[in-house]
Amino acid sequence: GMNCMTSLSQVYPCSEQPCSQPDAVDCKLGPWEPWGHCMNGKQRMRHRSIEIPASGDGEACDEALTETMGCEAHSEGPADCKFSHWSEWQFCDRTCGGGQTYRQRRVDTPAKPGGAPCEGELLETASCNTHDCSLAKQPCRVSSWSAWSPCTTTCGTGEQLRRRKVLTEAQDGGVGCYLPLTEARGCPESGEGGGEGRPACGKTDCEWA
Q1: What domains are there in the chain, each with its CATH number?
Q2: Model pLDDT for residues 38-59, shown as the tens digit of each residue
């Protein structure tokens, strides 16, 4: 048979009236929030938001949503001045004979009306390296040897010790203490060195308990 060649749907215009435009609504801002806390002792901020956005041909909100102001302009009341911490002491300007070093601080937070001002210096000096320059680059000095200690055994082979100590550490680049502070030797046998010495150990037989 023959296929259906006609359309299965038809379209007719139903209205020739133009579409109506939505009513123009202007943007509306909300109220300001309270001022925030002072940041770094310098400024504070407050915010607001858009309550109703513009629609249609309404006017947009072109005013700022954030404001900042100096802390002094909106003081919460009296506040005392505050210093920063002291810095580290600087290097001494002399290596001997008395030099000078310094440290400093700054005013972190100025006093607000009614608060106590900062009292005290911003720079502090002190003397340093006051030792006599004649001691500069002096080597380490050690004491004389002590007497030999008693032998570690009462007869036969043993050991004796003698010691010395550091009297003065090296100064300003002088040679350090590299010499030994302890010395050991074998104990002298009887009659050695012209002295009385120690007796040789005798033989001792094993005994049953």
Answers
A1: 82-134 (2.20.100.10), 137-186 (2.20.100.10)
A2: 777 678 888 888 888 888 778 8
